[in-house]
From TrEMBL:
Compositional bias annotation for Polar residues: 329-346
Organism of origin: Ancylostoma duodenale
Domain Ints3-like C-terminal span(s) in chain numbering: 2-314
Name of the protein: Ints3-like C-terminal domain-containing protein
Pfam families in UniProt: HEAT_Ints3_C
């Protein structure tokens, strides 16, 4: 039977998607043996199951869009290993799905009937989606948001993303960070700082600004930035493209202090003096100030101090302002204490006079 269906498909490419329909309709989609027959047909045709799924959904979408919408959730339920890891399957689905069908599929996701994405393949699928048409990417990112994918799944993609070329993905990643519980761990910050600094590309700056909007995450981001700078100075990872002797030229370059400072300088240019004052909090952080103090004393960092003189000047200004505020606070507390003592002394004198 399997070989007959595989042969029939050569002359009629509707056979295998109709096979999926009958499996779902007649067994309510619960029989593993039935769905394994579909995999067997792919094997008999000497092709990958995901290749057959892609071709079937493509043809079904052309022939009958309602049947297409009926089969898509079932494919991700029963052929989840193949479909959930296939960029070509997602491309076909997102190319042909309409707004009503997206709503229906999101409903299936919300009701926990369908899981579309897998952590081990998600970044590769997003990388493939960067070349899709805008409308296809629009549908794709609706499904990503519906599943509530965490930003950590995309850490490895962040250094390669170019916001000018990949505007849809960059915009949606910012929305993911904006809506999700933010976990500004060191891996995420390293990935963001690893992006090539550019005046035309503010993606890294925008991500950091989102991460520091909450006061609790602002401190974690600041501490991580300060610790990162300290580690780079200690390891001698100061200049972009410097690397280490004997290292493979084809291997990934270490994140350098120069690259981090370039992003931080752009951050100060774009984000300081805004209403929330969250950007100033980074450079008032004790760990960050310690890192910049070490940099000012380190002779090897002298070329970077010269290159990023504006950044170092801003940090010194904010350090002075922070010190003035602390001094003012101490003076105010001292004055309050002195006033309280004076008041108590006067009260005691009045009591003594009353006794007399």
């Amino acid at each position: 039977m399997v070989n007959m269906i595989a042969t029939m498909r050569d002359s009629d490419n509707t056979v295998t998607y109709l096979m999926l329909f009958f499996i779902k309709a007649n067994s309510n989609g619960l029989s593993n043996e039935c769905i394994s027959c579909y995999r067997d047909v792919a094997r008999a045709r000497d092709e990958e199951t995901e290749t057959l799924i892609t071709a079937d959904l493509q043809q079904c979408a052309i022939d009958d869009d309602r049947l297409f919408a009926y089969l898509v959730p079932y494919v991700f339920q029963r052929l989840d290993v193949e479909a959930g890891a296939s960029a070509s399957v997602f491309n076909v689905v997102c190319s042909h799905i309409d707004a009503h069908q997206i709503m229906q599929l999101i409903g299936e996701i919300v009701r926990e009937n369908v899981t579309l994405f897998r952590k081990d393949s998600f970044a590769q699928i997003v990388a493939a989606s960067l070349d899709w048409p805008t409308t296809t990417q629009w549908a794709f990112w609706h499904l990503v948001h519906a599943e509530g994918i965490p930003g950590e799944w995309l850490i490895q993609l962040l250094p390669k993303l170019k916001s000018s070329q990949h505007a849809e993905a960059a915009a949606n990643l910012l929305l993911m960070l904006k809506r999700a519980d933010r976990d500004p761990n060191m891996n995420m910050l390293r990935a963001l700082f690893s992006r090539t600094p550019s005046a035309e590309d503010t993606f890294t700056i925008d991500c950091i600004k989102i991460l520091i909007e909450d006061p609790s995450t602002c401190k974690r981001v600041s501490d991580n930035v300060g610790n990162l700078l300290k580690k780079q100075m200690a390891a001698g990872d100061l200049h972009m493209g410097g690397g280490t002797k004997g290292a493979s030229k084809k291997g990934p370059q270490k994140l350098s202090m120069e690259q981090v400072l370039a992003h931080l300088e752009q951050f100060t240019q774009l984000c300081l003096m805004k209403g929330k004052k969250s950007a100033e909090q980074i450079f008032s952080n004790a760990t960050v100030l310690e890192a910049f103090s070490e940099a000012e004393k380190n002779d090897k960092v002298a070329p970077l101090r010269s290159k990023f003189a504006q950044l170092f000047a801003v940090v010194n200004i904010l350090r002075a302002e922070s010190g003035d505020k602390e001094q003012s606070s101490r003076t105010l507390r001292g004055n309050r204490g002195s006033s309280a003592s004076t008041s108590m002394s006067k009260a005691n004198r009045h009591k003594d006079e009353d006794k007399d």
